[in-house]
Amino acid sequence: MTTAADIMHPGAQWIPATQTLDRAAELMARLNVGALPISDKNERLCGIVTDRDIVVQCVAKGRDPSAMTCGDLAKGTPRWIDADAGVDEILAEMESHQIRRLPVIRNKKLVGMISEADLAKHLSEEQIADFVEKVYAGS
C-alpha cells in the first residue's frame, strides 16, 4: 500500500507562529516552496502560511509583513495526515477541505508535505483528474 510517507516531499520545515511574514517569505524563497506549516510554541501544527496568504492578506491590505506574524494568519483547524495513511485517506482529506498542500505528521512531528506535484508523481491520471475536479470545483 502506498502511504503518505511514500508520496510526501520529505524535509518540510516549520515556521514558528511568532515569526514575521517577511521572514516566512524569505524562508519560502530559500526552500523554493509556496507554503510553510506554522508551529506553536510546542512545535504542534497550528496552521499553514502560503505565499498567496502573504500577498492577499498582508501586502494587498497595506499591512507591514515585518510586523505581521505567521500566527496572525493561522485561522481555523489545520489539516494534516499521518505518515502511514493510505492514498484514499490523503485524497479524502485534501478533496473534502479543498486544499492543495497537506502536512505529513509522524509521532506528533512534521516529517513532510504533500503537494499537487507529489500527487502527480504517484497517482493515475484518473485519480489526478478526480482530485483536480474536486479541489478546484469550489475555487
Describe the structure.
- Helix content is 40%, strand content 22%.
- It has one domain: CBS-domain.
- The chain has 139 residues and is α/β, with parallel strands linked by helices.
- The protein has 7 helices and 7 strands.
- The strands form 2 sheets. It has a 4-stranded mixed β-sheet.
- It is globular, with a radius of gyration of 15 Å.
- It has helices at residues 4-7, 21-31, 51-57, 70-73, 87-96, 116-122, 125-136; strands at residues 9-10, 15-16, 35-39, 45-50, 81-82, 101-106, 109-115.
- InterPro entries: CBS_dom (IPR000644), CBS_dom_sf (IPR046342), Diverse_CBS-Domain (IPR051257).
- This is CBS domain-containing protein.
- Residues 8-66, 73-131 form the CBS domain.
- Pfam families: CBS (PF00571).
